[in-house]
Amino acid sequence: MGQVFSFTNIFGKLWGIDKEIRILILGLDGAGKTTILYRLQMGEVVTTKPTIGFNVETLKYKNLTLNIWDLGGQTSIRPYWRCYYSNTAAVIFVVDSTDKDRIDIASKELHTMLKEEELLDSALLVFANKQDQPGAMTAAAVSQALNLTDLKDRSWSIVASSAIKGEGLTEGLDWLMDVIKDEQL
Ligand SMILES: Nc1nc2c(ncn2[C@@H]2O[C@H](COP(=O)(O)OP(=O)(O)OP(=O)(O)O)[C@@H](O)[C@H]2O)c(=O)[nH]1
Ligand SMILES: [Mg+2]
Q1: Which residues bind Mg(2+) (predicted)?
Q2: ipTM of the prediction
Q3: What residues have their beta carbon closer than 5 A to ion ligand 2?
Q4: How far is it between the farthest Cα atoms of the chain?
């Protein structure tokens, strides 16, 4: 079956409208995923509890409609991440930069996820989160611990962030939108 080209399809693409872009927020439990989702959506710090299942919110950002899925990161929930992979334009992987004990687990989960066929074309944005905390690893240290330079054939970036202070989030999302726009046109 051929692809269907409709007026709205083609011109919507050219003008960057009418697009719904699916983004997943993944990472270990407590990394700050839900805090980031609502900080981006409402501009506020919300009180969170561990996510069992998911939160999904729609965000209008620079002409684009983003469907952002924030999945629970607890060990027992991680096997379900893969149920959400199809049609994902980008993954935002959030790391608690103070959690040195579990950075290797975060790295393993990241690389397992990125091997999945459905995510081969997805861009990757990593937030080295909780930079407001003393002793937080720098973005460079997190990048090294996650072996990000091993990634081939993928657009990726890492940005230092504090969801509590609202720092780095817009910078990260701006980078992601530029990549997604380039790839979808
Ligand atoms: N200091 C600091 N605390 C943060 C930051 N981001 C999130 N937190 C706190 O970290 C805790 C966990 O945040 P959540 O957003 O619930 O974490 P999560 O990744 O959604 O966790 P799960 O839903 O269990 O996967 C909360 O107490 C947040 O307030 C940050 O940038 N700095
Ligand atoms: Mg959560």
Answers
A1: 34, 51
A2: 0.99
A3: 33-34, 51
A4: 56
> What SS3 state is found at 125?
strand
SS3 122: coil
- Identify the sign of the CA torsion 73, 75, 79, 80: negative
Mutate to test the pocket of ligand 1, among 28, 34, 37 (most ligand atoms within 8 A of CB): 34
Write the residue with the smallest CA distance to atom 30 of ligand 1.
Answer: 130
Structural domains of the chain sorted by starting position, each given as residue range(s) with its CATH number in brackets: 21-184 (3.40.50.300)
Q: What is the pTM of this model?
A: 0.92
Q: Which residues of 122-156 are buried (b: 16+ CB within 10 A; e: fewer)?
A: bbbbbbbbbbeeeebbebeebbebbebeeeeeebb
Q: Which two tokens stand for residue 2?
A: 């051929």
pLDDT tens for residues 134-156? 999 999 999 999 999 999 999 99
